[in-house]
Write a structure and sequence with these properties.
Layout (H helix, E strand, L loop, with lengths): L1 E4 L2 H9 L4 E4 L5 H6 L4 E6 L5 H8 E9 L12 H6 L3 E4 L5 H13 L6 E6 L3 H10 L5 E5 L1
Parallel strand pairs: 1-2, 3-4, 4-5, 6-7
């Protein structure tokens, strides 16, 4: 598992949790650094936007890009030539149906997977929590107590 982040500190936190390494997408050389790995079988993306084409360039033949969000909008162009030539699949996901959610919860419980929690805050601090997310200063989930 490799990660991308705009923060070297977060990349370091991810490697401490077991990631092989990471790439700082704010660096002009991140794509070149990622290509040096030799390609990826799968990319999971939450941001969308034009960076999808960067991911297409990083894929091994028959690779798959799964996206579950589009906070950066839709891509202005899509490198379909590279996609069909390398048999790359682009797949959207709503993160599952009810049965898949139940199986995921069972899997998390059985394997004792602990989510990374940045902070637990009262609902009265919701604006502050969103500010943390906007600036990217959190690492992990922010939980609001109702």
């Amino acid at each position: 598992v490799w990660v991308t982040s705009g923060s070297q500190e977060k990349i370091d936190q991810c490697t401490a949790l077991g990631a092989q390494g990471g790439f700082n997408y704010k660096s002009e050389s991140w794509l070149k650094e990622a290509k040096s790995i030799g390609g990826f079988d799968q990319v999971i993306d939450s941001a969308g936007g034009d960076q999808i084409n960067d991911f297409v360039k990083l894929m091994k033949p028959a690779g798959r890009i799964v996206f579950y969000g589009a906070t950066n909008g839709v891509p202005s162009k899509l490198d379909v030539h590279r996609m069909f030539w390398n048999q790359i699949t682009l797949q959207g996901s709503t993160m599952g149906n009810d049965q898949e959610f139940i199986r995921m919860v069972e899997f998390v419980s059985r394997h004792r997977i602990q989510p990374i929690i940045d902070s637990v805050r009262p609902f009265s601090e919701a604006v502050s929590a969103f500010d943390s997310m906007k600036t990217g200063s959190q690492f992990g989930k922010i939980v609001l107590i109702l």
